[in-house]
Amino acid sequence: MLTFVGLGLYDERSITLQGRDALEQADQVFAERYTSRLVGADFDDIEAAHDIDIDLRAREGVEQDPEPILDAAESGDAAFCTAGDTMISTTHVDLRLRAHERGIETRIVHGTTAAAAASSLTGLQNYRFGKATTLPFESAHGGDGVPGSVIETIEANRDRGLHTLVFLDIKVDSDREDYMTGDEAAAMLATDWEETVPAVVVARAGSPDPVVRGDRLDALAEETFGEPLHMLVVPGALHHIERDALVELADLPAEVADLA
């Protein structure tokens, strides 16, 4: 059995009770942190909280050499966990399909996702979000500025009156972790749109002190939003309740809200 477990958004307590049980019942537990991570806890905290040992795998250890995970699932109960939900944005469908090819039973224990938190914290209606996108560091895509695919996604959503959730890049090396911040993302996007385009930074969703701050892109580029992780939302056309929510909950200036 291979059980995919979402750890939730913030710390070792963000996991569901079902997820906790799956970790404690597993013979071996694997995890990765290259797609996302818990900023309120490290894997030592998770191990201590659940009295388990975790085999932390690098990207190549999951995507190119999944055999240790599959072998463990074939001979016993293995759990594979990530921050958020293992199949939403931090998708590991390929690993699940490889397990099925070997006749290994799988199941999913869902965790709270960043997409759900972005909707909940901003007050934007979840069914009015279009396609999400990820804004990479310039060094990650070998070019300058914002990739055309990101611009096209946001513009296509805005043309349809839909909101865009922009995930911000994470770089994990053996000795360093870099997280794109909301102000960095706003500065990059501000070069492609006129100053009147509003946006909302969501920082540390799931934590006791999340930050939700809306303004024009160029104004957000001049602010700081504290510790990671950050997301950016570019609103489309606003329902009047969504407008009021952004003004009240995200401190979006009313005159900027009216430009959405």
Give the CA-CA distance, first to last residue.
Answer: 48 Å
Largest sheet: 5 strands, parallel
Topology as H/E string?
Answer: EHEHEHHEHEHEHHEEEHEEHEHH
Low-pLDDT residue intervals, each spanning 5 or more residues: none
CATH domain class of the largest domain = Alpha Beta
Protein structure class: alpha/beta
Strand residue content: 15-25%
* Corresponding CATH architecture of the largest domain: 2-Layer Sandwich
Number of domains: 2
How many helices does DSSP assign?
Answer: 12
What this model shows, in words?
This protein has 260 residues and is of the alpha/beta class. The chain folds into 2 domains: 2-109, 3-Layer(aba) Sandwich (Cobalt-precorrin-4 Transmethylase, domain 1), CATH 3.40.1010.10; 114-257, Tetrapyrrole methylase, C-terminal domain (Methyltransferase, Cobalt-precorrin-4 Transmethylase, Domain 2, 2-Layer Sandwich), CATH 3.30.950.10. Helix content is 35%, strand content 20%. It has 12 helices and 12 strands. The chain has helices spanning 17-25, 43-50, 59-63, 67-75, 93-101, 114-122, 138-141, 148-159, 182-190, 217-220, 240-249, 254-257; strands at 2-6, 28-31, 54-56, 78-82, 106-109, 133-135, 164-168, 170-172, 177-179, 198-203, 211-216, 230-234. The protein has a 5-stranded parallel sheet, sandwiched between helices. Strands 6-7-12-10-11 form a 5-stranded mixed sheet, sandwiched between helices. Strands 8-9 form a two-stranded antiparallel sheet. Strand 10 (198-203) and strand 11 form a beta hairpin. The longest helix is centred in the middle third of the chain and has 12 residues, at 148-159. The chain is elongated and about 60 Å long. It starts with a strand and ends with a helix. The model has no long low-confidence stretch (mean pLDDT 92).
